């Protein structure tokens, strides 16, 4: 009961903070909202050292993943539902812009994967679609 109430209060504060503060994208699954670090629930961006390369042209996949998340958020209002919170750790949340789930958009764009240990396959279909269409990082594999 206390945990549910606390999570509701954290979610309410997080939503207000996202409206009032500047959002900085840290990686393909992490943002900073007014000093609060938030990790997007259920997704995993490419590893830091993974390269997305075709011939002589290429870039670090993680950098592109971060840029895609930046574009998806833009200057829009970020709404988050807290899924987990532990002291000293980033808040884990499902976040949306214009009512669209950022985790789902990142996986569908091919710049993140379903993190099944956390999501129990919530984004597995989207990952399958992105792989099949060879979009995002999948066009380099």
SSE topology:
Blueprint: H1 2-20, E1 23-27, E2 30-33, E3 36-40, E4 43-44, E5 51-54, E6 57-60, H2 61-73, E7 79-84, E8 91-97, E9 100-101, H3 102-108, E10 113-114, H4 116-119, H5 124-133
Parallel strand pairs: 3-8
Antiparallel strand pairs: 1-2, 2-3, 4-10, 5-6, 7-8, 8-9
Care to describe what's here?
The protein is 38% helix and 29% strand. It has 141 residues and is α+β, with helices and mostly antiparallel strands. It has one domain (2-140): OB fold (Dihydrolipoamide Acetyltransferase, E2P) (Beta Barrel). Strands 1, 2, 3, 7, 8 and 9 form a 6-stranded mixed β-sheet that branches. The chain has a two-stranded antiparallel ribbon with strand order 4-10. Strands 5-6 form a two-stranded antiparallel ribbon. A hairpin with a 6-residue loop joins strand 7 and strand 8 (91-97). The termini are far apart. The relative contact order is 0.18. The model is unreliable at 1-9 (pLDDT under 50).
Could you estimate the helical fraction of the residues in percent? 25-40%
The domain tally reads 1
Structural class: alpha+beta
The arrangement of helices and strands along the chain is HEEEEEEHEEEHEHH
CATH topology value: OB fold (Dihydrolipoamide Acetyltransferase, E2P)
Rg, alpha carbons: 15 Å
Mean pLDDT, to the nearest integer, reads 85
Give start-end ranges of low-pLDDT stretches.
1-9
Shape verdict: globular
- Helices, by number, come to 5
The biggest sheet amounts to: 6 strands, mixed
Which CATH top level class fits?
Answer: Mainly Beta
């Amino acid at each position: 009961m206390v945990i549910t109430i606390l999570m509701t209060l954290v979610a309410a504060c997080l939503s207000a903070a996202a409206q009032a503060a500047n959002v900085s994208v840290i990686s393909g699954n992490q943002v900073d909202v007014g000093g609060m670090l938030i990790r997007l629930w259920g997704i995993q961006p490419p590893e830091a050292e993974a390269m997305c390369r075709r011939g002589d042209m290429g870039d670090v996949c993680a950098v592109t993943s971060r840029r895609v998340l930046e574009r998806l958020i833009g200057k829009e209002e970020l709404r988050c539902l807290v899924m987990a919170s532990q002291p000293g750790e980033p808040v884990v949340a499902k976040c949306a812009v214009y009512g669209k789930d950022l985790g789902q958009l990142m996986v569908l764009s091919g710049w993140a994967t379903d993190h099944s240990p956390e999501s129990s396959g919530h984004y597995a279909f989207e990952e399958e679609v992105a792989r099949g269409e060879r979009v995002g990082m999948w066009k380099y594999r």
